[in-house]
Amino acid sequence: MKPYAAYAIGAALVDTEIQVTDAELAAMNVEKGMMTLVNQARQRDMLSTLPDHLIRANHASGGSVGNSMIATAMMGAPTYMSCKVAQDADGDIYLADLEQSGVVHGLTERSTDGVTGKCIVLITPDAERSLNTHLGISETLSTDEVDEAAIKSSEWVYLEGYLVTSPSGHAAALKTKALAEAHGVKTAVSFSDPGMVKFFRDNMAAMVEGGVELVFCNDSEALEWGQCDDLDTAIEAIKSVARRFVITLGADGAVTWDGETLHRVAAKPVEAVNTNGAGDMFAGAFLYALSRGESDLRATEYATLAAGEVVKYSGPRLERDACLALRRQFFGD
Description:
By secondary structure, this protein is of the alpha/beta class. The chain has one domain (about 5-10, about 65-110, about 140-330): UDP-N-acetylmuramoyl-L-alanine:D-glutamate ligase (3-Layer(aba) Sandwich). It has helices at about 20-25, 40-50, 65-75, 90-100, 150, 165-180, 195-200, 200-205, 220-225, 230-240, 280-290, 295-310, 320-330, and strands spanning about 5-10, 15-20, 35, 60, 80, 105, 115-125, 130-135, 155-160, 185-190, 210-220, 240-250, 255, 260-265. The strands form two sheets. It has a nine-stranded mixed β-sheet, sandwiched between helices. It has a five-stranded mixed β-sheet with strand order 3-8-7-2-4. The radius of gyration is 18 Å and the shape is globular. The two termini are about 20 Å apart. About 50% of the residues are buried.
């Protein structure tokens, strides 16, 4: 066994989750269910229109691969994350969360220029999340942050599709993938958001060029990748770039291709209050199950259970005790 179940590189963001109505979302011209890149001024304007909502806001370190690496680590499989945070309070919060969760980061020098990335997560009554992200210093994530030793010491490399928006971040993703291939480390890629696939298609294609071991996506991202309106066609399109993949279907569960067989996994009915982090939890739980030597089908069943659990609560992930309880419930240890 290698020291780390997975190595990831991605944006370090501190989330502010706020409950809003659909009318308020429309009034702010926010595209529902999507991730939109914004600047600090836009974030300030959004918060100024919701002063009473901040009383009920929840704050947590986030970022897609960060959430996933934390989930895998808290379930019992150590992980490593390369990222950038500024020398500010949000940066302190982010690194402390990684360390307390068992995620190694290797970040010893922090820039005094810029700010740590932030994401305003607007939650509507149907539990849908709409992300408004200012990358901050994460926008300058580059090949300098790629840690070859950590990659070599990992079973998996996990890349978030959000890296396609930044030229330097995209270059870092491609370097990470190349190093993984050189050291015989399996690569997993998340499509992350339909907008990433639609508006940065060439960059996304470069991330999976030559084929990757595993792709994570939801049905909207799958359809966007296949440029189609039926899942069967999308599945065939993903097969051309991934040896294995999982497509999450929300309340309908997931489908997984293990390289030989397409499996369908149902989800247990739950009362969802917040879907922020559901896909991240799914990926983190899936990678944890693989670290135990479980099959893709078994990993999908566990990840579906974990994603169904995290949407019951505010925040992008579960606490450690809840992660361990979930592990015991499913695996019996």
